[in-house]
Amino acid sequence: MNVAFLLQRAAIANQLTSCLTEILFASALDRAAFLDAHLAQTGRTLGPLHGLPISVKDTFDIRGIDSSVGISALAFHSAQDNALVVDTLLAAGAVIHCKTNVPQSMLALDSVNNIFGRVLNPRNRRQWTAGGSSGGEAVLVAMRGSVMGAGTDVGGSIRIPAFVNGIVGIKPGKGRISAKGLITGQLPAAGKVGLEACVGPIARTIDDLGLFMEVIENGRMWEVDPEVKAEEGWWTRSPDPVLPLFTKLQAEKPLRIGILPSDGITTPLPPVTAALHRLTQQLHTHHKPTIKLIPINPTATGFSASQSLANKFFSAEGSAHLLSLISSTSEPLIPWLSPRLRQKPPATLDQFRALLARRDALQTRLLRTIWKDNDIDILICPVAPHPVPPIDG
After folding, report:
1. Is the pLDDT of residue 217 over 90?
2. Whole-prediction pTM value?
3. pLDDT tens digits, residue range 243-263?
4. Contacts for 38-45 with beta carbons within 8 Å, 24 or more apart?
5. φ, ψ for residue 54 (rounded to 5)?
6. Where do runs of H (alpha helix) occur along the chain?
7. Which of helix, strand or coil describes residue 79?
8. Catalytic site residues?
C-alpha cells in the first residue's frame, strides 16, 4: 500500500471533518520505510498488517504523544508508554499514522470538544451527527483515510458512530481485548466500579473486522495483562464469504439467528423497522438451508430494564473528579454534556453492592430469555430506534 497516498486522504478528511487529534505523518513515513527495508532484507512481512495505515482513538496512549480525550487539562502531557493494543498492532506490522477525535471526556454520543472542535459527518456536515465517542475514528475510516481503526465502547461508542457513518464495528465481550494504556479522564480503575469500556475495531468491511480480531487474538494479550481472558482460538474467521465473522459454525445444524425488533420500550421508526424487515427477508431467501430465524418478543426478555440500570452505573462514582478536572481550566462543558453531567454524591458501598446484584440478576435473565430459551447463535437488533440523528441530537 502507498502510505503517503493514504496520509493525503487522512489530511483531506481532517480538513473537511476535524476527525483527527494527533497527526503522526512523519513517524508514519519513517515506519513505512523501515517496513519496506525489512521486507527487502528478509523477504518476509513483519505480520498480517504489514504496511497498513491504522488509526487509533485518542484514548489510546502512544509513547511521546498526548491523550487529551477532549479535556484541556490533559493537553501537553505526553504518554510514557504505548497502550497494549498499540504495541500489538505494531508487532503485526501496522503503521500508526494518527489519533482520532472524541467528545470531551468521551461520555457523549456526539464528538465535539474545546480543543479540536466538532467532528462532522461527511455525508451531511451541516445536519447529521458523526456519533460518539469514537466519532473521529468512524469518520476517518468512512472517508478512507485509514484502513481500519481501534475504538472503545461502553454504551454504543463504536456501534453508533459505525451506524451513522455507514460502516461496521464490533464491541467485543469484556476481557477479550486489553484496555491497558487507555486514558479516560477519570481516576485509575474508575471503570471497574461502573461499566467498563471494551476495545474493538472499526472498519469498512466485515472481513477487515475479522482481520483486526485475528491480530488481537494472536497477540496473546493475556501474557501481559491479567485482565484479559487467557483463551487461544477464541477468534477464527469462517471460510464462508457470507458470514466471515461467525466463529465455530456447526455444519450439522442450521445457524440460529434471533431477531429482536426493539428494546421493549421504544418502537423503532418505520425506516428502521423496514431495514430490519429487508434484512430478515434476504437472510430467509438466500440462506434458507443454512440458517433458521427466531423471532424474539422483547417484552419477555427483561431488556427494557437495561438502560435505566446502566444510567445508575454511569453516575455511581458521582463525577466529582471528572468535573473538577474540566473546571480546572475554566473549560465549559460541551452542549451534549451540559444538561446531563452533574456532580452527585458517590454511591455508598451498600448502594453499589445493590447495583451489582441487580446487574448480575439482569445479565442472568438476559442470558436465559434471549440466548438459552431460544437456543440462538447470533442476535440481530436495531442499533437505534431512529435513523441518523441531528448534531447534538
Report:
1. yes
2. 0.95
3. 554 544 555 678 899 999 999
4. 45/93
5. -120, 135
6. 3-17, 25-42, 84-91, 135-142, 159-164, 206-218, 270-286, 306-314, 320-327, 349-366
7. strand
8. 57, 133, 157
User: Tens digits of per-residue pLDDT, 286-304?
Assistant: 777 788 999 999 998 998 9
| Environment class of 94 (CB within 10 Å of its CB; exposed 0-12, middle 13-18, buried 19+) | buried
pLDDT score for 237: 64
Give the total residue count for the chain. Answer: 393
Instruction: Please give the Cα distance from 122 to 238 (Å, whole number).
Output: 32
- Per-position DSSP letters for 177-217, written without gaps between them: S--TTB--SS-TTGGGGS---EEEEEESSHHHHHHHHHHHH
> Do 7 and 29 contact (CB within 8 A), yes or no?
yes
Q: For residue 66, what are the β-bridge partners?
A: 78
| Coil, helix or strand at residue 284 | helix
Question: Which amino acid belongs to residue 283?
Answer: L
Average pLDDT, the chain: 93
Residue 248 pLDDT: 46
Amino acid at 330: S
Question: What is the C-alpha separation between 367 and 373, in angstroms, rounded?
Answer: 9
* Cβ–Cβ < 8 Å for 202, 138: yes
The DSSP bridge pattern shows strands 117-118 and 255-259 to be: unpaired
pLDDT of 86-103, one tens digit each? 999 999 999 999 999 999
Tally Cβ neighbours within 10 Å of residue 100. Answer: 35
Cα angle vertex 104, ends 101, 108, to 5°? Answer: 95
Residue that has been written with the C-alpha cell 472524541 in this structure: 102
Distance between CA 278 and CA 87 in Å, rounded?
41
73 or 247: which leads in pLDDT: 73
Whether the Cβ atoms of residue 61 and residue 86 lie closer than 8 Å to each other: yes
What is the SS3 string spanning 97-112? EEEECCCHHHCCCCCE
pLDDT value at residue 193: 77
